[in-house]
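quick one before i forget lol
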Amino acid sequence: MLHLDSASVDVLPRSNIAEEGSQCVVTLLLTGRATPYLHNGVVYVGDEDHYALPQFGVLARSEVGFLLWEDTNDGKVDETHQPGSRLKTPSLPVWVCCCSGHYGVLFNTNRELLRNYHAERR
């Protein structure tokens, strides 16, 4: 049996998931790779004076998409946290949506919807 007193609890990490951790879990479930970055492919951050660090985003088109809307105080959209086209246009008409930290699912039974925008009106 494990017994923890208040002194030992204070040194334990509070959470294994950081602020963007739930986003990593979502990308793991949708793409098979956990990443906090939603852009397409690999983006190198840095300059020639410092080593550019790779940020690995979504490497392939996902079967299920991901849409994100974060509420900001100034009303501006943070482009660095917006999903790339590989998450916006999935193979199936199913999207996991995150709106201010609340998750839901959008779907359509018409698979033609992703191939032809005229299918919206049928």
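fyi The mean pLDDT is 78.
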